[in-house]
From TrEMBL:
<dbReference type="InterPro" id="IPR000614">
    <property type="entry name" value="FRMsr_CS"/>
</dbReference>
<comment type="similarity">
    <text>Belongs to the free Met sulfoxide reductase family.</text>
</comment>
<dbReference type="GO" id="GO:0033745">
    <property type="term" value="F:L-methionine-(R)-S-oxide reductase activity"/>
</dbReference>
<feature type="domain" description="GAF">
    <location>
        <begin position="256"/>
        <end position="341"/>
    </location>
</feature>
<dbReference type="GO" id="GO:0005829">
    <property type="term" value="C:cytosol"/>
</dbReference>
<dbReference type="InterPro" id="IPR003018">
    <property type="entry name" value="GAF"/>
</dbReference>
<dbReference type="InterPro" id="IPR029016">
    <property type="entry name" value="GAF-like_dom_sf"/>
</dbReference>
<dbReference type="InterPro" id="IPR051330">
    <property type="entry name" value="Phosphatase_reg/MetRdx"/>
</dbReference>
<dbReference type="Pfam" id="PF13185">
    <property type="entry name" value="GAF_2"/>
</dbReference>
<protein>
    <recommendedName>
        <fullName>GAF domain-containing protein</fullName>
    </recommendedName>
</protein>
Amino acid sequence: MFVCFLLGSAVAYNIVMIIHRLHFHKLSRFPGPRLAAATGLYETYFSAWGPGIFESEIDNMHEKFGPVVRITPDEVHIQEPFRTSSYSDDWIKGTGELESGHYQGRSVHNFQYKRPSISRARSLLRVEVNHIINTLIEKHQPHADSSYFMPGSSKADIYEQLLLSTQGLLDGQRNWVSNLSNVSSLLWHAYASLPAPSSSVNWAGFYIRDDKFPALASPVTSPPLPGAPGSGSVIISTTYSCSESQILLLGPFHGKPACQEIRFGKGVCGTAAAKQETVIVPDVLTFPGHIACDAESRSEIVVPILVNGETVAIIDIDCTEPSGFDEEDKKYLEKLAAFLAENCDW
């Protein structure tokens, strides 16, 4: 009886695992033989015939399914060339653990990889797959999938994917409100996928110079300001009398409610905006004049977005751990700022 129970449990477990692999696994949307996706026995069958047989079968899979194919329940294989003008409509972009061990002796984008450098191969392959994914953004529901960042990737890999996703999501759209809304989401999910301290980011978003908001793009008529003399309307001017009078207003972000406005030169954000340079603060408690929007924040990085020599907005990232940001964050966030400066109408 006990043996029958164990046998039945094993059968039930395998059925559940097959259903999971075919329909709910992270790689379930990559194309490939259903049997290969369901069980590792598919690889075992071909490998049993001798070395190189399964590799030949992989080539057959590529001929049938396209440049990216699922070869086992937990592996995806990528075929050179990565960039091509035509992609099969039969394969749909997706994400997953691109950890194939079948790169030995294969040419990957003009590089030869042997097993001692397999981690480097995987790193580059992640970037290449993300490029393929983002070229199909309009065709295959970009919004949800673009915010998926592969766990276990390096910070550089995550930033590279973020830049590629930003490029795809901003294609054909120059409205900064829409664009920064998407980018703030990308930033939030990107940091969440990284180990500490990056995973401790508790605020990611933007502050925008107030005259860049649509309602203030030109002088407008508004109701009387409280305490203003007379009963007529008030004309709001977008011309600053001096640079110190410039104000940053809260823009798109992810995190707790934040300060509504910050004057140029005040706090970390205002300092970066006024100096037009990135400011990294390892411990905000030691920064003179720090504006505490969230008491849990311990470190911060602020990167200005510059257009025609003027600060039009800033990228603001907070972390609940001290020393949450370094020169690598600075390098990639400045690339992001430069891209947003060129690809949004300010």
